[in-house]
Structure formats: structure tokens, C-alpha cells
């Protein structure tokens, strides 16, 4: 049995963690967190960390003892410099609470790249983990909608770089911009995206800790994640009717199944494909043919098969990327955002236009 730690930092990380706990409780009752046990096969500890108490209070499926509030007025206001100081001041307290949970085989840290708390806490927390513990740590990082503004874009660029330099064992990318076709208003798009991420992570945990017909384990996952440029994404497809397994695999590798925009045949470096379902849908020849097609352009592909009676085929793909053209696009927009913010600041401090306006009444008094 695997001992798994999942940490959600900041609002986005907290909400994805809550979606994971909701899926794991298996019911949508708001009292689930008080009365029921999580249905993980592995021993999973979940911890939510935030400076904003309201984000923690919003969580419906994560137990109170699993929510750590780091007081700092009303959050850190998207300022990563403030966030880093707050983490440093509270590091000992946070690490103590985590260490009390025991030993782990693997940890996942969930965060947005662009806010204040998650984006500044996550790289520093991962660095602490890598210095103190010897289990692998993976970051699941949510990229912003591109129209969310200059501060979020520049935060995303610096946060991702900080995470890469933290000693992390791999970064799984999920992109709000790419996933926004979920439709509806922002809130329902968030919920849709969070559910997508939660289901993929739970499938992954299931696959790493299951008795399978064809086995993939944590060692295989580590090998996949160590390939490529340290970046990865996850694909998923669940058939809602009888469907040839090869179509389900293709769907899980197609843009509609992925969390980040990439052409897997062009940019992926290593992969893991896990297929779940009733034995009658799992044609080994079809599975092998699809996996061979993928490995001819990707390199190594680990495959796993989990037999679940009476279930339609479900497929999870983990893909590490050797290049990511969409990330290059994001960085070029972020550079514009950083320059824009810099110029704006210079303009304000050089011209002091507002001061000039006030100076017009220097030495004058109001007359009534
Ligand atoms: P923090 O609390 O200071 O770490 O900031 P947030 O986590 O709110 O970061 C802001 C970024 O996260 C923006 O790019 C938002 O679009 C994104 N975000 C906030 N909440 C959610 C959510 O529930 N789901 C998703 N997918 N993205 C979110």
C-alpha cells in the first residue's frame, strides 16, 4: 500500500484538493467529511494550506484538521515577494504539521502558478521537502487564463521557473486557458477543470496501487516523469457506452482529453498508458497496436491494465514533454506583461504627474 501526501496551496490548490476529497468520498453530501471515510486504496493524507481563511472555510469535503491557516490579514494579494516572506516566517510550523503525518512514498503539491499564496509557497515547500525527505515530489501547476492580467502572467512565469529550480521530480501542467472550453461562467469552468484534474489524479493513484493484469507501479511513474524537460501533462477518457478500446486510447491522447495543449506525437518524450474496464472490452491486440503507434514517435511507453467488471473502458495517459510550444507562447506574453508593469512603474515614479496636479494648489487656502 502506498503512502501518499497531497497538498493544495492557495485558493486554486485548495479547491482542487477539495474536488479530490469529494471524488474520494464517493458522495456529494456536504456532511461526508464528518461521517465517512475516504475511499482511497492507498493511505492518502490531504492538507490544504492558505493565508486566506475564507478559501479554507469554503472547502466542503476536506476535514478541518487537514486545513492549515497561515494568518496574514487577507491573503498576500498576488504579491509573490510578500508570499515568500510569509512562508519563510511560518516554515517551521508548516513542516512540523506535515512531519507529524508520518512517512510517505510520494507527494503531490497542487497550486496555481499565478496567484500569490500558492505560487510563492509551493516552490519553497517543495525545496524544503527535497532537502528533508527522500520521496519523490510532483507539482501539479495550473496556468492562468491569458486575459487575467499582467500580474498573474508575470507570477506564472516566475513561479514555474522557481518550481523547476526547487528540486521537484516533475511538473504536471494543467492550463485554464486550454481547458476553458468547459464552458459556462468562470465558477462552473473552475469546477469542471478541478473535477477533471481530481479524476485524473485519483485514477493515477488507483493505477499505482492496484492489482493489475498488466502492472504499472510508482517506479514506472518515476521513470516516465524523469523523461523529457521535467514537464508533463495527463490525458483521460472514459467511454459512456461500449466502445473499441483503441478509440478510447486515441481520445485520451487527443487535445480533448489532455490538461495542456500539446501534440503528443510531436512533443512527448515518455508515456504511461493505463487502461481500466471489463475484460470483454480490453482486446490486447488493439491495446498493443495503439501503444506501438505511440511508442514509435514518443520512445518508451509503459502500459498497465486494470480489470474492473462491468465497467466501460477508461484510459489514463501520463506524458512527459521534451518541448512545449504552448509554454513558449505563455512566456512571450509574460515578458510583455513584465515589461509593461516595469514601464508603468517607471512612468509613475519619473513623471509624478499626480504630484504635479497637487502642486498647483501649493501655498493656497480654500476660500469660502
Ligand atoms: P492564491 O490563493 O493567492 O494562491 O491564488 P489563486 O490560487 O486564486 O490563483 C489565481 C489563479 O488561479 C488564477 O489564474 C485563477 O484563474 C486560478 N484559479 C483560482 N481558483 C481556481 C479554481 O478553483 N480552479 C482553477 N482551475 N483555477 C483557479
Automatic annotation (TrEMBL):
It holds the Pfam family Tubulin. Gene3D superfamilies: Tubulin/FtsZ, GTPase domain. Involved in cell shape control. One of its GO terms (cellular component) is cytoplasm. PANTHER family: CELL DIVISION PROTEIN FTSZ-RELATED (PTHR30314), TUBULIN-LIKE PROTEIN CETZ (PTHR30314:SF10). It is found in: Cytoplasm. SUPFAM superfamilies: Tubulin C-terminal domain-like (SSF55307), Tubulin nucleotide-binding domain-like (SSF52490). This is Tubulin-like protein CetZ. Belongs to the CetZ family. GO terms for molecular function: GTP binding; GTPase activity.
Amino acid at each position: 500500500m502506498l503512502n501518499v501526501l497531497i497538498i493544495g496551496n492557495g485558493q486554486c490548490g485548495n479547491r482542487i484538493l477539495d474536488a479530490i476529497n469529494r471524488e474520494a468520498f464517493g458522495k456529494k453530501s456536504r456532511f461526508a467529511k464528518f461521517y465517512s471515510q475516504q475511499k482511497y486504496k492507498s493511505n492518502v493524507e490531504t492538507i490544504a494550506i492558505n493565508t486566506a481563511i475564507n478559501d479554507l472555510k469554503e472547502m466542503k469535503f476536506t476535514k478541518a484538521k487537514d486545513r492549515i491557516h497561515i494568518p496574514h490579514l487577507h491573503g498576500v494579494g498576488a504579491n509573490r515577494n510578500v508570499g515568500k516572506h510569509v512562508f519563510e516566517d511560518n516554515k517551521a510550523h508548516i513542516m512540523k504539521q506535515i512531519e507529524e503525518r508520518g512517512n510517505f512514498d510520494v507527494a503531490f503539491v497542487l497550486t496555481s502558478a499565478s496567484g500569490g499564496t500558492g505560487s510563492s509557497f509551493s516552490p519553497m515547500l517543495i525545496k524544503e521537502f527535497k532537502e528533508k525527505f527522500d520521496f519523490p515530489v510532483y507539482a501539479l501547476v495550473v496556468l492562468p487564463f491569458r486575459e487575467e492580467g499582467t500580474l498573474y502572467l508575470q507570477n506564472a512565469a516566475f513561479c514555474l521557473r522557481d518550481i523547476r529550480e526547487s528540486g521537484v521530480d516533475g511538473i504536471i501542467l494543467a492550463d485554464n486557458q486550454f481547458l476553458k472550453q468547459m464552458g459556462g461562467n468562470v465558477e462552473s469552468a473552475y469546477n469542471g477543470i478541478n473535477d477533471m484534474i481530481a479524476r485524473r489524479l485519483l485514477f493515477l493513484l488507483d493505477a499505482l496501487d492496484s492489482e493489475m493484469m498488466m502492472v504499472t507501479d510508482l517506479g514506472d511513474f518515476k521513470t516516465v516523469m524523469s523523461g523529457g524537460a521535467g514537464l508533463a501533462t495527463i490525458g483521460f477518457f472514459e467511454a459512456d457506452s461500449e466502445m473499441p478500446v483503441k478509440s478510447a486510447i486515441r481520445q485520451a491522447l487527443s487535445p480533448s482529453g489532455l490538461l495542456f495543449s500539446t501534440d503528443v506525437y510531436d512533443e512527448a518524450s515518455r508515456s504511461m498508458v493505463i487502461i481500466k474496464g471489463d475484460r470483454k472490452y480490453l482486446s490486447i491486440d488493439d491495446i498493443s497496436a495503439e501503444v506501438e503507434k505511440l511508442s514509435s514517435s514518443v520512445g518508451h511507453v509503459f502500459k498497465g491494465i486494470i480489470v474492473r467488471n462491468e465497467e466501460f473502458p477508461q484510459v489514463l495517459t501520463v506524458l512527459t514533454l521534451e518541448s512545449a510550444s504552448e509554454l513558449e507562447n505563455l512566456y512571450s506574453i509574460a515578458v510583455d506583461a513584465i515589461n509593461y508593469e516595469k514601464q508603468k512603474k517607471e512612468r509613475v515614479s519619473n513623471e509624478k504627474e499626480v504630484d504635479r496636479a497637487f502642486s498647483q494648489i501649493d501655498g493656497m487656502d480654500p476660500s469660502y
